[in-house]
Design the sequence.
């Protein structure tokens, strides 16, 4: 599954393993960003992303087993990659590979590389995606990869953890080959039903994770993506799954009531949910 770009960049799996240190220093705080008119929060210590992270927050609330929401979501994102990636496979990078299940689904279609800040997560990726290369590396420092290394870059629920997501997206654009695909998903703090959750009183799926240090509205993410020279193909929501939104009705009833459109989107590999009707924003972008 070699591509023309691979011959140009001269990259192979042994080189991938050799050029990356086993652990990177923690990301640097960004400081004042005039464009946002706020002080960017400091970076979260690397210790926050060990094994305990995958037992807390949203992982603690939702099962990971077969036919769970997580199980369906990983298969949906894998289908999106196959649908929108350049033909011929090629090299794929997942930033924040976590447990490695997405790469496990794509490892037969692409030459996969997963990076995660936590060595524990990199080990899980190796277990669940044995054909992929898994590296303990910060997503905020891709300088070890040459220009145009990858045909696909995926970042699912990663960019909200970065102190300077705009700079990270610019680095994604640098390491993407021409025609390459960038897929990312991140919380949408202004989705339509969020006020019903009263997140200031009771933390919701977005606010309860203290490592979400870069939660921004969809317009900011589009601006940073296009500012990096990438063309947005699709921007859409992932559905209203963070129930309950209404008092009295049981959560199971509300999940069925609000969740059926997103289930149809997943089963059809569609991208039709409006951004305003997604707890998360999902973006598909291409490098011209």
Sequence:
């Amino acid at each position: 599954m070699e591509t023309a770009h691979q011959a140009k960049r001269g990259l192979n799996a042994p080189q991938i393993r050799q050029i990356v240190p086993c652990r990177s220093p923690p990301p640097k705080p960004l400081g004042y960003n005039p464009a946002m008119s706020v002080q960017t929060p400091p970076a979260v210590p690397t210790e926050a992303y060990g094994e305990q992270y995958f037992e807390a927050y949203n992982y603690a609330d939702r099962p990971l087993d077969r036919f769970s929401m997580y199980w369906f979501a990983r298969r949906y994102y894998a289908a999106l990659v196959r649908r929108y990636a350049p033909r011929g496979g090629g090299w794929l990078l997942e930033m924040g590979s976590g447990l490695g299940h997405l790469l496990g689904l794509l490892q037969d279609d692409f030459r996969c590389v997963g990076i995660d800040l936590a060595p524990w997560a990199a080990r899980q990726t190796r277990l669940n995606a044995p054909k992929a290369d898994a590296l303990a590396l910060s997503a905020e420092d891709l300088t070890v990869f040459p220009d145009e290394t990858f045909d696909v870059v995926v970042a699912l629920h990663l960019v909200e953890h970065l102190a300077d997501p705009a700079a990270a997206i610019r680095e994604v654009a640098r390491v993407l080959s021409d025609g390459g695909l960038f897929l990312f998903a991140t919380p949408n703090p202004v989705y339509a039903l969020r006020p019903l959750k009263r997140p200031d009183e009771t933390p919701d799926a977005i606010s309860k994770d203290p490592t979400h240090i870069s939660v921004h509205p969809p317009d900011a993410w589009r601006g940073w993506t296009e500012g990096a020279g990438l063309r947005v193909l699709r921007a859409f929501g992932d559905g209203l799954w963070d129930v309950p939104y209404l008092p009295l009705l049981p959560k199971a009833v509300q999940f069925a009531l609000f969740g059926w459109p997103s289930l149809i989107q997943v089963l059809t590999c569609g991208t039709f949910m409006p951004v305003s009707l997604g707890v998360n924003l999902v973006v598909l972008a291409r490098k011209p």
